[in-house]
Design brief:
about 260 residues; mainly beta; 4 helices; about 40% strand; seven-stranded antiparallel β-sheet; 16 strands
Length: about 260
């Protein structure tokens, strides 16, 4: 199977996919594919993407409202209430985190949660001079269990990656995968790939949470400055070979899977 066939085979695994080429709304969605944008900090640029359009954010000082760009989570995120599930989040980013972003905030290019430290999945960029991670900013993939205390030191897992070197004006590809989420057993697996390369992973953790899917949203660009393109959520964990093929793709995924 060649790379194109490998990616076309993912069509039935897409929960949500937004190329952002023609509009900010999803090309493919199991749930509601309409996006909500706060016009003062998020807009669709029809020519600003890797191939066509992209979403562009100027939310440096937007604060904690976390509604810059949201999709409904019901059916668009592969959550299973009473069963284990797998998944992948993939998106492309363009910007200079160390120059453009506010030093006052962690910044979440992707986030779906009840709270950051309570039943959450997120990809974020840490503050500069963070007391835990120092500088420059690091990228984290976080996934938390139910945690009524909403304490960042309880019930959470983090994969932390440094040496991003994203001040080059280029697009960069982030893929986060997980297996056996919500199993309640010590069988969780997660991995993070940047620009097609495996950069961090975790095995053998327990994950369990309960959502009301109508009370959480899929968020993009929280406190972010820069562009986001080719946003994809799958109900399966991509292999390293599939991640490499997706990274090397020289056309929108929409041309292959639609």
């Amino acid at each position: 199977m060649n790379a194109t066939e490998m990616l076309a085979d993912l069509k039935n695994n897409i929960s949500l996919y937004a190329s952002f080429d023609a509009s900010p709304n999803a090309d493919i969605a199991r749930g509601d594919g309409q996006v909500s944008l706060q016009a003062e900090v998020a807009r669709h640029d029809p020519t600003g993407g890797r191939f066509g359009g992209a979403l562009v954010f100027s939310a440096r000082d937007y604060g904690w409202a976390e509604d810059e760009c949201t999709f409904a989570s019901r059916d668009n995120f592969p959550y299973q209430q009473h069963a284990a599930f797998d998944g992948t989040v993939s998106l492309w980013l363009k910007g200079d985190p160390d120059v453009d972003l506010s030093p006052e905030y962690p910044v979440d290019p992707f986030h779906v949660s009840r709270h950051a430290a309570d039943a959450s999945y997120y990809v974020d960029l840490t503050r500069p001079n963070d007391w835990r991670y120092g500088s420059p900013r690091k990228l984290r993939f976080g996934f938390y269990n139910d945690s009524p205390a909403q304490d960042m030191f309880q019930e959470g897992r983090l994969i932390v990656i440094g040496d991003l070197n994203w001040n080059d004006g280029a697009w960069h590809h982030i893929v986060a995968t997980w297996e056996n989420s919500n199993s309640g057993e010590l069988d969780g697996r997660a991995a993070v790939y940047i620009d097609g390369r495996l950069r961090g992973w975790m095995d053998g953790y327990k994950h369990h949470f309960a959502w009301d899917a109508d009370q959480v949203t899929i968020g993009l660009g929280q406190r972010y400055v820069g562009a986001i393109d080719e946003f994809l959520i799958l109900d399966r964990a991509l292999t390293a070979e599939q991640v490499a093929a997706l990274h090397a793709l020289e056309q929108p995924l929409a041309r292959i899977v639609k």
